[in-house]
Amino acid sequence: MTSASTESDAQLALRAAQAGAAVVRDMYGASLHRVEKTGGDFATAADLAAEETVLDVLRKARPADAVTGEESGRTGADGAERRWLVDPLCGTLNYAVQNMLVAVNVALRVGSATTAGASADPFSGEVFWTDGTRARVRKDGADQELSPSPASCLVDVNLDPKFPNAPAFRAVELLAAPEFAERFRPRVVSTTLAVAWVAAGRRAAYVTDGDLRDSVHFTAGIALCEAAGCVVTDLHGRPPYTGAGGLIAAADRQTHDALLGMVMNQARAAR
Predict the structure, then answer these.
(1) CA distance 7 to 185
(2) Given this model, what pLDDT does residue 174 score?
(3) Mean pLDDT score of the chain, rounded to an integer?
(4) pTM over 0.90
(5) Sheet strand arrangement including 73-75
(6) Are 89 and 44 in contact (CB under 8 A)?
């Protein structure tokens, strides 16, 4: 086994995500205590246990690094050069009602760049991971390069709040647009596992509103898509993380430009 001193950041992200996924899988189906948050959101005991496991892996290997966990918040200096972003169970509501569409996300930001990321599917056993240059999926100890494709015509759209770009952009109105129905088929799985699926060729695109800067939910998936060669921008066609600009991650330029055009049409109609 690779020692912590020689293990790369990408391999560490993968290992930490796998450790969290094992906890999520083992606790699936149990009657879990809920911790209420604001706005009707909540965490389960599985969220808390998975995050504790992921943070333990990271801190043992990189004790000097800062960490942001969805449940435990920020540790380390605010301006730390190296910061891990941990989403221990993306799709908590799915999980709570025994729907297996969830992910464990781990990413490392070094300065303004995401240099490692992993999104683990606890139930398929797959871990989508990147070193910031190449994107792969690991299953049963073997790696395969990720290859985006628009062939499915499936576009996953996040309908969960917040909606900082409303009324100029409303995700539900994108789904209702005639030009969307002519070209694409909508999907709403309510977990950022779907962002990794864009990099893997299982979705043509993913669209969401929101401020994604230092997002524990989206950073790993965005890094996967960028490394796989997807076209990734905010809702205005700018680079991702440009304020509260949301996200369009598409398998190819044609798919991206079609969706961006629909978003721009919606913005013009709202004026």
Answers:
(1) 41
(2) 96
(3) 94
(4) yes
(5) 73-75, 66-69, 82-90, 103-110, 113-120, 127-130, 135-139, 142-145
(6) yes
Q: Report pLDDT digits (tens) over 197-218.
A: 999 999 999 999 999 999 999 9
Give me the DSSP letters along the chain: ---TTT--HHHHHHHHHHHHHHHHHHHTTS---EEE-GGG-EEEHHHHHHHHHHHHHHHHH-TTSEEEETTTEEES-TT-SEEEEEEEEE-HHHHHTT----EEEEEEEETTEEEEEEEE-TTT--EEEE-SS-EEEEETTEEEE-----TT-EEEE--PSP-TTTTT--HHHHHH-HHHHHH-EEE--SSTHHHHHHHTTS-SEEEE-S--TT-TTTHHHHHHHHHHT-EEE-TTSSPTTSSS--EEEESSHHHHHHHHHHHHHHHHHH-
Q: For 159-191, how does the pLDDT look when each residue is reduced to its tens digit (9 = 90+)? A: 998 899 999 999 999 999 999 999 999 999 999
Confidence at residue 79, expressed as pLDDT on a 0 to 100 scale: 86
CB 7 within 8 A of CB 58: no
β partners of residue 187: 156
What are 253's two structure tokens? 């330029």
The amino acid present at 174, given as its one-letter code, is L
Q: Is the dihedral of CA 25, 30, 34, 39 positive or negative?
A: positive
In terms of Cα–Cα distance, which of 151, 150, 120, 143 is closest to 229?
A: 150
Q: Helices 9-27 and 45-61, interaxial angle, to 10°?
A: 150
Which residues lie below 8 Å from residue 77, measured CB to CB, with a gap of 6+? Answer: 66
- Per the listing, tokens 């900082």 go with 164
Contact 147, 52 (CB under 8 A): no
